[in-house]
Amino acid sequence: MLSLKRTRVGQFEIDDSLTLNQISALLLKGELGEYIIAADDVFDFSCVVMATADSRVTVKLCQIDDDDNQAFYKNDVQLKAGKLQVIKFADCKFAKGAASPVKLIYDFGGCEAGVDFVIANITIIKK
Is the dihedral of CA 9, 11, 15, 20 positive or negative? Predict the structure, then answer.
């Protein structure tokens, strides 16, 4: 085998995704709104994380100026060296309602020095 391309992670399919160029074109045409997830919408989230050594990560999506207005929070996700770990959250909604802007936090605190991490395929799907 010369290559491998992932086309699906759980319910998330590559055919439903947009490239950065597509997003830019939609923005210029004023058509990006139909693809935007409003803060009051329910959505699913997934991402893939890998570490070069056994490690851990905490993942959180919250309002920039209110850490308590969270859509999801997962503490101490265990990562095995060299293994892809899919992290998923279903039926997410911000605890206190509308949140804008937001921040996505990956906290690798407490990990050994020199460990490299890869975060890929960050996906949010409006329900």
Answer: negative
